[in-house]
């Protein structure tokens, strides 16, 4: 990966990835299971998070829950397919459904 910008496409319930080092060229997209109407995302690409050796992709859902995903799984899925229920869906890691309030 490089200097990526990840945006939520709420209408499609997916995320689109752009490379800021190449004038925001479209890299790919992915879906995250259980994440719809995303209210925010955060990425901590660090090897020092217990249980998440490659870092975390966190997404707050429209119902105020947070889903956590292994960053390596996100990286592996980007570009596999468009956001339409294809093989680009990543599964959340425990803990799931933390109250964001």
How helical, in percent, are the residues?
A: under 10%
Q: Hey, roughly how much beta strand do the residues contain?
A: 35-45%
Q: What's the main sheet like? A: 4 strands, mixed
Number of E strands: 8
Mean pLDDT equals 77
| Poorly predicted segments | 95-101
Biggest sheet, strands in spatial order?
A: 1-2-3-7
Q: What general outline do the C-alpha atoms trace?
A: globular
User: What is the N-to-C succession of helices and strands?
Assistant: EEEEEEHEE
- Rg, nearest Å: 13 Å
Q: Nutshell version of this structure?
A:
The chain is mainly β.
Give an overview in words.
This protein has 101 residues and is mainly beta. 7% of the residues lie in helices and 45% in strands. The chain has 1 helix and 8 strands, in the order E-E-E-E-E-E-H-E-E. The protein has one helix at residues 71-77; strands at residues 4-9, 14-19, 25-32, 40-44, 56-60, 65-70, 89-90, 93-99. The strands form 2 sheets. The chain has a 4-stranded mixed sheet with strand order 1-2-3-7. A 4-stranded antiparallel sheet has the order 4-5-6-8. Strand 1 (4-9) and strand 2 form a beta hairpin. The longest helix has 7 residues, at 71-77. It is globular and about 30 Å long. The termini are far apart. The model is unreliable at 95-101 (pLDDT under 50).
Outline the secondary-structure elements:
Blueprint lengths: L3 E6 L4 E6 L5 E8 L7 E5 L11 E5 L4 E6 H7 L11 E2 L2 E7 L2
Parallel strand pairs: 3-7
Antiparallel strand pairs: 1-2, 2-3, 4-5, 5-6, 6-8
Which properties best describe this structure?
about 100 residues, mainly beta, four-stranded mixed sheet, about 5% helix, disordered C terminus
